[in-house]
Amino acid sequence: MRQLIAGNWKMNGESASLAEVEALACWAASSAPPADILICPPHTLVARAVVIANGRIGIGGQDCHPDKSGAFTGDISAEMLQDAGASAVIVGHSERRQYHGETDALVASKARAAWRAGLVAVICLGETEDQRLAGQAFRIVADQVAASVPQDAIGMTTAIAYEPVWAIGTGRTPAAQDITEMHAHIRECLGSVRRQLRVLYGGSVKPDNARQILDLPNVDGALVGGASLRALDFQTIVSVARPGS
Ligand code: PEP
Fold first, then answer.
1. Any catalytic annotation for residue 93?
2. Where are the domains of the chain?
3. Average pLDDT, the chain
4. CB of 168 sitting under 6 A from ligand 1
5. How far is the CA of 71 from the centre of ligand 1 (A)?
6. Could you give the CA distance from residue 216 to residue 214 in angstroms, rounded to a whole number?
């Protein structure tokens, strides 16, 4: 399976940051990268990033509302992202779950909204540190897979990002064996129909640990936060992806 390296800019980036998209897209066009590339800038930059990327890399949103349109001040629909040229959208990021109270059921409805608009849904899930310390990580992740990944998800329309909450933005990563075991567990939970989904790892992926993580069995790519803000760092991560078809 060809790996996917997705960058989540979070609430970072203004017009000047589009130079990073340009640099990354130029690099991608000239160097046949071993993985698919997706950058998810803030919504204000999506349309311009799409023009700059010019098909050389994918551009996505960071969230969407389940509905197509309506009285939802401040929200954005999957259709609006698609209209701006996005090809994917992140849903259920732990920061949305934590600061906006998003439930698994809401995340599943956002994934369906993404499909309705023709976008790939990157569905995030992962345990907190307390849950891991209490020995509940496998159960929590199984519950999240059951409730936030629709049964009819297929590899063309959906990717999972396993992001242990305690590893996001902290510089800490799980042991290699823990990542391998959790990814195998997620695959098991997905069952035979959803087995083709890419399962990305996210949480403090950096240029200096990317190769080790991307080489692990069952790791089909990465969701990268901080290290996606600079094209050079992100390129370094993409270039150590495991080549696949
Ligand atoms: C993320 O925001 O999804 C993330 C993984 O962030 P970071 O790489 O900075 O830990």
1. yes
2. 4-239
3. 97
4. yes
5. 31
6. 6
